[in-house]
Specification:
- The complex is a heterodimer of chains A (364) and B (170).
- Chain A is mainly α and 364 residues long.
- Chain A is 67% helix and 0% strand.
- In chain A, α6 packs antiparallel against α7.
- Chain A is globular.
- The termini of chain A are close together.
- Chain B is mostly helical and 170 residues long.
- Helix content of chain B is 72%, strand content 0%.
- Chain B is built from 6 helices and no strands.
- The chains are: A mainly alpha (364), B mainly alpha (170).
- Chains A and B meet through α5, α7, α8 and α16 of A and α2, α3 and α6 of B.
Amino acid sequence: MNALPASQTFPVTNAIGDAVRQLFPASAPAINTLLAIASLLALVAFLPVLLIWLERKVAAHFQARLGPMRVGWHGLLQSAADGLKLVFKEVLKPEGADSFVFFLAPILPASATFLIMAVLPFDHHLQVADPPAGIIYVIGISGLSVLGILLAGWASNNKYSLLGAMRSGAQMISYEISLALLMLLVVMVSGSASLREIVLSQQGTILDWWIFKLPGLGLIAFAMYLVTSTAELNRGPFDIAEAESELTGGFATEYSGISFAMFFFAEFVNMFVAAGLATTFFLGGFLAPRIGLAFFDAVVDFVPGFVWFFAKAFLVVFIYMWFRWSFPRLRVDQLMYLEWKLLLPANLVLLTLTAFFVIRGWIL
Amino acid sequence: MSDLLFYLLATALVIFSLLAVHVPNLLHAAIALIASFFVTAAIYIMLEMEFLALAQIMLYIGGIVIFMLIIILLTTGIGEERRLPVTISRRLAGAGLAALFLGGLIVAFGRWTPPAPAGTNPAVSLDAIGLRLLATQNGFVVAFELISVLLLTALVGAVVIARKDKGETP
């Protein structure tokens, strides 16, 4: 492994950026920031539409149905139509609800996903910001989602909402510990807490990705990350927070129109963000899957990095959807049992083992 | 530019802090507290103390406030006005304390001469903080390890408390 420092490996050059900066030299910082924010907004707005369509299609095919077929090609415009319908619906507020908190709550998870997306390395230089402590930032910001759900549950003035919010809060806080420990593991082996540096530490062939590079442990860590982040996302089989049969809609019971849409959209973008983080931590992020054969490597290197990033992220998204339709929902106590008695001790053992590997230099 | 930004942030911080102690509704107060933590983090970033800002967000907003919220959500009668009756003696006591504090501040600032600005210090990198924390010489390795062990004990303790004795059905 002959890793160069980040600044030398991928010098900052791209034609469009240079042209714009030459035309308006003074406005470069403003243009960069505005472009970054605009593209993130576009991504956050577009992703849920695609992901909801994917979810419905994947669910349908798992159950040997076709799913949405009428609106657009294979129902591609179905979720766009649904989203439009939600936007035009009336926003209802239950009587006795706290208006300020009720309307503040849906904004928080949506902004959390937006903020985390700002540090995801989509390509060599396609990253809005790269704080040196990116992982701490990710852990900190994900607290905002919990906050939004708790506030939504309380402000709705509905016992189902409050119960759903409490379950969800307990679940997310518990699983956040495991998630943080797994991120710590990645920081330990890659020697950096910046998301970009973590990706760059996996340069080389496919065997240099952390999922394969740590002998055996990488695969276990990746599987644990998948389970933990599914729980953190409140997705099935861990979706007791909105278990339809017992809690109607959980914390979002009383929400309608655009407020509901924001929760719903945030949930799906969050899924993509979790998949993107998994890609960054374990699957080599934007790096092409080289296998060491000159011809094959030349072909995969020709594909731009962001294509690889999205391909890997959507693969992980597909695994999340697979989970949802493969396993029955867990009970509340089983959920807590899984985290506190199985995942957390296993995590601590894994962390210790990895530390041992790092010290002995057994990482390939 | 950065002066203007600082005054904006400072004003926001003062307003949110005042709201956090003055709003009658506990939950609204907690939200104001969260906002004030965020603004504090922004001020840390202005001072180029990135790590402190991130730690502030992670510990206070991601951790402590969530637990405060859960406690608040479990209390009953959050929205009700429950103030102490205002009496003349309470007002006098409050005014006296405020005057005392103001006098103390005036005395303290009167004696204090601001140090000459020592130029701009280079921003402290995350690596430097990490190395300093774990350095055996001129470092904080003992304190760091003690706190780590304390936190690990808390984590394992939670598991032990959550464990059911044998024979008890889950």
